[in-house]
Amino acid sequence: MKKLLSPSLALVMSLTLTACNTNNDTNGSTQQELSGDTSQKEPSGYDRELVKFPENYDKGVNYTTVHRGNVREELYTSREAIEAVQNGQPFPDGTVITLEIYRDEELDEIFVMEKRTGWGDQTPQGTPRNGDWQYQEFNADRSLDYEEDIGRCFTCHANQERDEYVNTLDEMKSYDLENFTGAKESSTESQITGIPTDHWVVKEDSQDHLLGNSLMEDEEKAGIIQKVLLMIHFNKVT
After folding, report:
1. What is the DSSP letter of 216?
2. Residue 48: half-sphere exposure toward Cβ, Cα within 13 Å
């Protein structure tokens, strides 16, 4: 009789435990959905709203290009950041390094790392701190890529502590800033471009246009002002 009862009892206990585990998993998922807790969806616990997309990053210095098979990477940062590196100084507060990633010559994603004083304190627990750097990944359309686990960025760059957590520090050191079209004092045109003219007013004064105070488009206005300044400069030289 005991031999018949033991298998039956074991079967009942097994079914009971399975039901409990299933209920616990279901309840956990339901509670997470109701509470709006998305922490389980972000493995690194990283604040995805911290690093914003750097508008006009491509106006900065494109200091190096890296090729990896069918992948091409274009790296950008500010002139100030490169000058600091070349002078043996740490990266200034607010430094942004942007990495465009092309696959088969099509822009696939944009990686951004930014340094701000105190940002290191916001590094997720259990993730290696990379000084005050934080990271972000964007899609080609500049929307935030929530599927990317930013935690692996910390792990990767942690190996570059000697180079201030930047993989391309040597490329910054060797970059010739004279090659940068926005280089200071590099040409007469760049000197003139640097003159603030936002407060200048250009009036249309020809027979083909009515006299008045109507303002031209900013681009047209800037072109006229630059031509005038160039004429003044060369008249002085000659």
Report:
1. P
2. 17
Torsion from C-alpha of 171, 61, 123, 147, nearest 10 degrees: -100
Rounded average pLDDT over 8-17: 38
Instruction: Please name the amino acid found at residue 237.
Output: V
Comparison of pLDDT for 121 and 7, the residue scoring more: 121
- Contact residues for 122 (Cβ-Cβ < 8 A; gap 6+): 47, 50, 134
Token readout for 32 is 């997470």
Closest to 53 (Cα-Cα) out of 76, 85, 84:
76
Say which residue the tokens 């004092």 belong to: 185
Amino acid letter, residue 60: G
Distance (Å, whole) CA 25 – CA 38: 16
Please give the biggest Cα pair distance in the chain: 120
Dihedral of CA atoms 215, 220, 224, 229 in degrees, nearest 10, equals: 100
pLDDT score, position 191: 43
Mean pLDDT of the chain: 75
Tokens matching residue 184: 């200071």
Residue 193 to residue 230: CA distance in whole angstroms:
10
Half-sphere exposure of 157 (CA within 13 A, CB side): 26
Please report where in the chains the tokens 């922490």 appear, as a residue. 39
pLDDT one-digit tens code per residue, 152-164: 999 999 999 999 9
CB-CB contact of 180 with 61 (8 Å): yes
Average pLDDT over residues 21-31: 37
